[in-house]
Design brief:
The structure holds two protein chains of two kinds. Chain A is an alpha+beta fold. Chain A is built from six helices and four strands, in the order H-E-H-H-E-H-E-E-H-H. Chain A has helices at 2-8, 32-37, 45-59, 73-77, 102-122, 130-141; strands spanning 13-18, 65-67, 84-88, 94-97. In chain A, strands 1-2 form a two-stranded parallel sheet. In chain A, strand 3 and strand 4 form a beta hairpin. The longest helix of chain A is centred in the last third of the chain and has 21 residues, at 102-122. Chain A is elongated. Chain B is an alpha+beta fold. Chain B is 44% helix and 15% strand. In chain B, strands 1-2 form a two-stranded antiparallel ribbon. Chain B is rod-shaped, with a radius of gyration of 29 Å. The chains are: A alpha+beta, B alpha+beta.
């Protein structure tokens, strides 16, 4: 993630948007390190900022960070929890809209990197492959199987 | 009598084989399905490729700078990485 930022920050804007914890110590599926570090669901904006600072420090990230409000409005608008990658074209439409969660994150980064590599080389935003558009359309037509 | 027994054994063997094949097929289908969370993720209401990105205005970590997504339009592509520490 940081490597991609360093490689393409001259041709694209990057924003890391800090949203609600995925596995807070007091959440439904806590992870061990959240319990050890006492990272709970955020109860205030300051609380969220404090945890975001820990992330930047520990992972040595230089990507500009924005903090979602406590009402999680932006995270919800993008259905981004627990994590997700998007790439917005210059005209404001989405060129990459990865799947949510750990299964989608890496493929999302790869898709964004592919787009940016072509953009950096040619100066033109690549078209979205027809297969990807079709895939995206079919996802919206699939009946809901959520738990 | 002997022929009858042989026929019963043969039918039994066929039934066992069929049942085993069916169980194997079910297992293969399960293996091919993405995890439950993945299936849920595929069918959420997130904006899709080609959609307009939802606009927003958010503050930076220091609380000083506000970023408006629309401010970038026409300038550079924008990579949005959503996540948290955990």
């Amino acid at each position: 993630m940081e490597e991609m930022y360093q490689t393409y920050k001259d041709v694209a804007e990057f924003r890391l948007i800090y949203i609600r914890e995925a596995h807070a110590a007091d959440g439904r599926r806590p992870v061990k390190y959240a319990i050890e570090k006492g990272i709970n669901e955020h109860t205030s904006h300051a609380d969220r900022c404090k945890t975001a600072e820990i992330l930047l420090k520990e992972k040595t990230l230089n990507i500009p960070m924005l903090i979602d409000e406590l009402d999680n409005k932006v995270g919800e608008a993008y259905s981004a929890w627990p994590d997700r990658v998007f790439l917005v074209r210059k005209d404001g439409t989405l060129a990459v809209a990865a799947d949510r969660g750990p299964w989608g994150f890496k493929p999302g980064l790869d898709a964004a990197e592919e787009f940016l590599a072509k953009f950096k080389k040619t100066g033109k935003e690549p078209d979205t492959p027809a297969a990807e558009r079709a895939d995206s359309d079919s996802k919206s037509k699939t009946p809901d199987e959520s738990p | 009598m002997r022929k009858k027994s042989l026929a019963v054994i043969c039918v039994g063997a066929v039934l066992v084989t069929l049942s085993s094949l069916q169980a194997q097929e079910e297992q293969d289908q399960k293996r091919q399905q993405p995890p439950r969370e993945k299936r849920a993720a595929v069918n959420d209401n997130a904006p899709k490729v080609g959609d307009k990105a939802p606009t927003f205005v958010l503050k930076s970590l220091d609380g000083e700078t506000e970023t408006d997504l629309t401010a970038f339009r026409g300038d550079k592509p924008v990579v949005l990485l959503f996540g948290s520490y955990t």
